[in-house]
Amino acid sequence: xxxxxxxxxxxxxxxxxxxxxxxxxxxxxxxxxxxxxxxxxxxxxxxxxxxxxxxxxxxxxxxxxxxxxxxxxxx
Length: 75
Fold this sequence. Notes:
alpha+beta, 2 strands, 16% strand
């Protein structure tokens, strides 16, 4: 089985303070920089996803912007 080019998997160890280190190649691929804020999204059945908070801001703006636009169109 071959891995699709845009799919990745890494492992990380949780330290005694509950911290994890995002592997270097993952930081490079997803452009994580020191001092960046990240958002952790959790689903008890599917697990945890980590994303840069600026991407979350864009996503929320898009979702709520479209929702507001649809509400205005419904009036």
